[in-house]
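Need residues for this backbone.
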């Protein structure tokens, strides 16, 4: 599932996305990691990550579906997708 990226792709900050999700989803909290995962899934380019894991086999928690849906809703509201 990929969307066309517009020039507005960098409109909202992570804090603005978090605030939107909380206000529109009964105070739901989402992490920067989850936002980055959803943005990557939608084909939005991310800046290079300098905070890389120390080991090759380290696992990251995956974004739960309800949080992914809320983040996608926020990205649409900010016209990022």
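Answer:
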């Amino acid at each position: 599932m990929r969307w066309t990226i517009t020039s507005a792709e960098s409109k909202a900050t992570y804090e603005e996305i978090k605030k939107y999700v909380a206000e529109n989803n009964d105070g739901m909290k989402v992490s920067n990691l989850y936002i980055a995962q959803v943005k990557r899934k939608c084909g939005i380019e991310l800046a290079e990550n300098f905070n890389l894991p120390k080991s090759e086999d380290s696992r990251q928690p995956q974004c739960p579906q309800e949080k992914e849906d809320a983040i996608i809703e926020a990205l649409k509201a900010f016209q990022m997708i």
